[in-house]
Design brief:
Structural class: mainly alpha
Radius of gyration: 17 Å
Helix content: 40-55%
Oligomer: single chain
Order of helices and strands: EEHHHH
């Protein structure tokens, strides 16, 4: 993720209190990358494009529960078995090896 200026006070780095509360509420971890070090930043933008093109485009879901169910199936059965150009491996193989 980028260092969201509203969420991360760069020089410490200190977390904005409201952003920190949001992460606790939704149970996600905030891990700000080093400033001016793009190689430390996750490849989030590409992942979002893949999700839009392969999971969302041209499809409609009845509700968020159905959308989440399809997303879980897609992650478990499709995208995790495709070879990643960055690592040269399938995400499922790396996960099983590292976990």
């Amino acid at each position: 993720m980028d260092n969201l200026k509203a969420g991360i006070i760069i020089y410490d780095p200190t977390l904005n209190e409201t952003y920190s509360e949001l992460s606790r509420f939704y149970s996600f971890t905030i891990d700000p990358p080093k400033v001016f070090k793009p190689e430390h930043k996750g490849k989030v933008e590409r992942s979002i494009r893949i999700v839009k093109e392969q999971l969302i485009a041209g499809k409609s879901y009845h509700d968020i529960i159905e959308a989440n169910s399809e997303a879980i199936k897609w992650c478990k059965n499709e995208i995790s078995y495709r070879v990643c150009t960055t690592t040269g491996s399938k995400p499922i193989d790396l996960y099983l090896f590292e976990e």
